[in-house]
Task: structure prediction
Amino acid sequence: ETGVTQTPRHLVMGMTNKKSLKCEQHLGHNAMYWYKQSAKKPLELMFVYNFKEQTENNSVPSRFSPECPNSSHLFLHLHTLQPEDSALYLCASSPTSGRYNEQFFGPGTRLTVL
Amino acid sequence: GEDVEQSLFLSVREGDSSVINCTYTDSSSTYLYWYKQEPGAGLQLLTYIFSNMDMKQDQRLTVLLNKKDKHLSLRIADTQTGDSAIYFCAERAPPSYNTDKLIFGTGTRLQVFP
Result:
């Protein structure tokens, strides 16, 4: 238990559906991250939020829309996805300052797009 | 450039030592990390090393850093079946606005057999 929870753990959706992934951290951190993990590829950073403000968007297609209403919650809204978007989506959080920037990861949401 | 490379697979016998290697390309990286991902779980920080060190030992784990060759390794002594997981090397990119970006490798899947 890392203090970062993600729901749902598994999601199957069609290309025309709209769904949302949720991440919550109970660590008092101020930075939150979305990563995409695909087989045999490096972990891809998608978005970074710091004090609820988006500070990085790593050229992510607009069919992925993040939302950070407060420092404890992070959402990823999905619409009109493609089959190649099937992957494990990981959320992480970290303090905004820290000697070695440990990022605490949630267990991920396994997304399958049909 | 931003490129962290690892071999994809490593298989070792229980009780032997495992050595997982990583090469990185950003010479300005200040911290380098090893994360472990067990099946169905997120990433867990195992250990880290600051760039002015060349070795760090933590119980069964030994991290070696060759800054000249940009080579990082993780040695696990007396490898156990519970060590079977995917191991990610990561480097800390130069910090941007109040957050720190981590660049991950592809991960090395360690399989331990009896």
